[in-house]
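Help needed: design a sequence for this.
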């Protein structure tokens, strides 16, 4: 019995310490994302850009807009006219995926990788600052912003981002 108990404890400890990762299908309401910590530094992007998007409701009525201004000193994410239903643990996440309709007509995120920027309040206007190191080490390009209820494991809403400079050039 002692050996079984010891093996169980050691197995649990090993699983926690190795940081096992699960690669899941596209994120849907009720699914759990893979949350990526911000990795170590790499070369920053010095090309200023402005990304914008409007939230689409998923697991809860969510509205408003989001702007990310990227400069050589980092990035600033601004929520404007933002509202969503209250939640126990609402988080602001960045994703390399986009919100699209699958074969069944359901809205799904094309990537389960999410980078957590922190808690979201109920304020209509909110600002999130990211220094050069944090912004330049995002695992891949940011294509959407997700309001995610961590306690319910539900995406409340997602805003696909568009590069404003690219729109002006066309």
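Sure. Designed sequence:
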């Amino acid at each position: 019995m002692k050996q079984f108990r010891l093996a169980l404890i050691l197995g649990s400890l090993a699983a926690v310490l190795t940081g096992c990762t699960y690669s899941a299908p596209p994120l849907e309401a009720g699914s759990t994302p893979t949350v990526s910590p911000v990795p170590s530094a790499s070369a920053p992007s010095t090309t200023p850009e402005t990304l914008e998007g409007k939230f689409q409701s998923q697991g809860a009525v969510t509205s408003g807009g989001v702007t990310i201004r990227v400069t050589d000193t980092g990035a600033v994410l601004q929520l404007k006219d933002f509202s969503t239903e209250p939640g126990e643990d609402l988080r602001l996440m960045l994703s390399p995926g986009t919100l699209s309709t699958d074969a069944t007509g359901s809205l799904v995120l094309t990537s389960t990788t999410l980078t957590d920027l922190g808690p979201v309040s109920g304020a209509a206007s909110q600002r999130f600052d990211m220094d050069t190191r944090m912004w330049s080490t995002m695992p891949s390009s940011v294509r959407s912003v997700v309001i995610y209820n961590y306690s319910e494991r539900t995406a409340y809403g997602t805003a696909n981002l568009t590069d404003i400079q690219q729109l002006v050039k066309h």
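The CA atoms of residues 25 and 149 lie 18 Å apart.
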